Amino acid sequence: MPSNDISSIPTIPLLIGGEFVQSRTSEWRDIVNPANQQVLARVPMATPEEVSAAVAAAQAAFPAWRKTPIGTRARIFLKYQELIRANMKSLAATLTAEQGKTLADAEGDVFRGLEVVEHAAAIGNLQLGELAHNVANGVDTYTRLQPLGVCAGITPFNFPAMIPLWMFPMAIACGNTFVLKPSEQDPMVTMQLVELALQAGIPKGVLNVVHGAADVVNALCDHPDIKAISFVGSTKVGTHVYHRASQAGKRVQCMMGAKNHAIVLPDAHKEQTLNALVGASFGAAGQRCMAVSVVVLVGEANQWLPDLVEKARSLKLGPGQDNLDLGPVISRNAKARIEALIAQGVQQGARLELDGRNPELPPDMAEGNYIGPTVFSNVRPGMAIYDEEVFGPVLSVVSADTLDEAIAVINANPHGNGTAVFTQSGAAARKFEEEIDVGQVGINVPIPVPVPLFSFTGSRASKLGDLGPYGKQVVLFYTQTKTITSRWFEDDVSSGVNTTIRLH
Ligand code: NAD
Description:
Blueprint: E1 14-16, E2 19-21, E3 28-32, E4 39-44, H1 48-66, H2 70-86, H3 88-99, H4 103-120, H5 123-126, E5 131-136, E6 139-147, E7 150-154, H6 162-173, E8 177-181, H7 188-199, E9 207-209, H8 214-222, E10 226-232, H9 235-247, E11 251-255, E12 260-264, H10 270-282, E13 292-298, H11 305-313, H12 332-347, E14 351-354, E15 374-377, H13 384-387, E16 394-400, H14 403-412, E17 415-416, E18 419-422, H15 426-435, E19 441-443, E20 459-460, E21 463-464, H16 471-477, E22 479-487
Parallel strand pairs: 7-8, 7-10, 8-9, 10-11, 12-13, 12-18, 13-16, 15-16, 18-19
Antiparallel strand pairs: 1-2, 3-4, 5-6, 6-22, 11-21, 14-15, 17-20
Bound molecules: nicotinamide-adenine-dinucleotide (NAD).
Nicotinamide-adenine-dinucleotide is lined by residues 154-159, 181, 183-184, 213-214, 217, 232-234, 237, 240, 255-258, 289, 389, 391, 417, 458, 462.
């Protein structure tokens, strides 16, 4: 393992009131390159005073920012998208080093966030109110979508560029100020994006960053000056954040864990379908909330299992910078957890068609957190590999006789993040799309994450709160609708005192 001289390891600053400052905490964690265990930097667990200072800076910046003209706000995001594009290679390199995904996929991570920034630049069209004339004689009613105040965001490790960009650009474009708590496992690319946001012109105090884990998250949930919290992460933590922050009177949206099923009907285009499934199951080493983790083969499609396994076996493992098919998983703990789930799968009677544990690797990859593509067949509900979100390169294959049976399997699963059907039949696809109880549906599309013209609409156990990230829904999430009813008196007309509810 490479040795690290602690004094030469960079520390990640906090951002408070427009200044990058060193935390005074005594508690630091290492940010570790998952491909070789090199410590890249150290991240502080911010103190309660630092969290309060970040919220206070956001609170102080709010009165001026909420009145900043639409055009000024929009132009910051126009500039920001240009800066992100110009720095794409360097952002992707940082992301790959700290997170492990391939460089090409890291660029995709940044790019999907960039699309939200582009959308934030259209805020003028998104934050329009409504107006009705003459709701009574001479009375008009109109609405404003007003910013809430200080909002906060808590993000997971798996998309350290895209998910912070789901949050602060739209919140700030709507006129709010923001406190971001990035994942403590890979906050470096997030900080690079934050620096670019300041360069784009986000004023002091409008965007703040605190680092930490449970204590900092709890402090944000409890803080009386924070009006709304966006969370993306695991179901366990998201459920805690939702209840704790709701209890403190905040608006909360939590996007959480998943178990995404894809149904394959025998009339599907075989080659396209298998390629799509293998890419969606094992890309990013299965660490996507929309990864396909269960394939339901229907009827004759069960005969495709050997070909599915062979395609999975052909994928190449390597450090993200080599741009092969899969990089390492995020940490040694994550690797041990995934391997334990694979062992449990065997123990519980699933058939291990392809075992990715202990892959053969050259000596220079020996320290990486590598797990190869793993495929189980004969998987049933009740087995840990089916019931739990593995969040690694492990695909479970379930067998069904009919489309109805396959739909019933998915609808009985508590999660509702994403699902897909592979078929050449319009009628089957339409039936699936109508009857499936999952918030994001793909038809021959394995990872149906909507672009920011729409909203991310995971459902059931994958989500708490009504409104999703980005698109139209997030404008409603980050604003309060105020309805104004107005009348202007004409000088010498009076109808006397009116004690009824009529307005005229
Ligand atoms: P996580 O829940 O461990 O961490 C998410 C955030 O919560 C981090 O910022 C972390 O510091 C904080 N946190 C961790 N433990 C905490 C605790 N006990 N109390 C308060 N805060 C705590 O999630 P992760 O492992 O970083 O990310 C992977 C998970 O995120 C997966 O379950 C994945 O499905 C989910 N995810 C969901 C979506 C979606 O849109 N539905 C998108 C990406 C990731």
